[in-house]
Amino acid sequence: MGHEFIARFKGRYTSGMEYLGEDLVECLTYLRFPQAHWKVIRTTNLLERTFGEGKRQTKVIPCFPTESAGLRLLYATLIPAFRSWKGVRIPLDIWFEIELLRREAFDEPGQKVEKELVAV
């Protein structure tokens, strides 16, 4: 599929098709995921923005006193980002892992995390 596309347009868009040919597998990686996710994950903009925000938040603090302090800040950055990812359905098991990390970061180890966790 991709190679036919490159062959068809190589004469008209030489440099673009050469670039696409070098990274064809990477460009089509999103096709390995469920089709419902394709529209959202076909670019990395969503992740790049999220990681950029995390980097921006941590840049002002030269070092964290504990690992937990760093996790708290990153968690506080990521949760609003997760909520803004409209159209992306996060599986329940992933939400379960996120909740475990949140509780660990906020020192709530005694609380039981139920598998029936409802996505916020």
In short:
By secondary structure, this protein is mainly alpha-helical. The chain has helices at 2-9, 14-22, 24-27, 35-41, 45-59, 67-84, 92-105.
SSE blueprint and pairings:
Elements: H1 2-9, H2 14-22, H3 24-27, H4 35-41, H5 45-59, H6 67-84, H7 92-105
Helix pairs in contact: 1-2, 5-6, 6-7
Please provide a written account of the structure:
The protein has 120 residues and is mainly alpha-helical. The chain has a domain at 2-32. It is 62% helix and 0% strand. It contains seven helices and no strands. The protein is elongated and about 60 Å long. It starts with a helix and ends in a 15-residue tail after the last helix.
Descriptive tags:
mainly alpha, disordered C terminus, 120 residues, elongated, 7 helices
How many individual β-strands? 0
Low-confidence stretches: 115-120
Oligomer: single chain
For the sheet with most strands, the description reads: none
Distance between the termini: 39 Å
Q: Helix- and strand-based class?
A: mainly alpha
Task: Count helical runs.
Answer: 7
Radius of gyration: 20 Å
